[in-house]
Amino acid sequence: MDTSPLRLEYTVPCPPGVAFDLWVQEIGRWWHPDYSPDPHGFRGATIEPWIGGQVLLQDERLGAVPVGTVTEVDPPHRLVHTSVLGVDEQHPTTVTVSFAPLPDGGTLVAFEHGGWTPQNVSSREKFAEWPRILDRYAALATERHG
Q1: Are 109 and 10 in contact (CB under 8 A)?
Q2: Cα dihedral 58, 59, 63, 64 in deg (nearest 10)
Q3: pLDDT tens digits, one per residue of 44-72
Q4: What value, to the nearest 5°, has the Cα angle with vertex 44 and ends 43 and 50?
Q5: What is the DSSP secondary-structure string of 42-89?
Q6: 68 with 91: CB under 8 angstroms?
């Protein structure tokens, strides 16, 4: 039973403040509809960037579907939120995203999906598809700022 965090890193061609804002303010543009309650009904996503703020997927039929709660926000350096997407709501996981400046003016975006416990680890394997979502974030950052 592997409970280690899933980790990915991306380099994007914009400074941390822009990379952070793109993550938070544009999540509805880069989030992949396949990872929502109904891909055909997907209408966007939102992160409320304050402690206690919600992470929401917007669905045509269901409205705003809460999938997490922000637990730490330190713009433009770090964002942490719980996630109940694909796991039992009683046993949420944790998503941590850090934004570090690079000498060339870009940003190293470090993504970690952790909080795996005996109660939710059976869902961990399906999250191997994170690159399919996060590649869209990196592509949007490159398209806008590359």
Answers
A1: yes
A2: -30
A3: 999 999 999 999 999 999 999 999 999 99
A4: 145
A5: EEEEEE--STT-EEEEEETTTEEEEEEEEEEEETTTEEEEEE-TTS-T
A6: no
Name the residue type at position 17. G
pTM given for the model: 0.96
Pick from 112, 131, 104, 122: nearest CA to 12? 104
Q: Check if the beta carbon of residue 87 is closer than 8 Å to that of residue 69.
A: no
The residue ranges of every structural domain in the chain are 6-145
Contacts of 135 (CB under 8 A, 6+ apart): none
CATH number of 6-145: 3.30.530.20
pLDDT digits (tens, 9 = 90+) for 101-139: 999 999 999 999 999 999 999 999 999 999 999 999 999
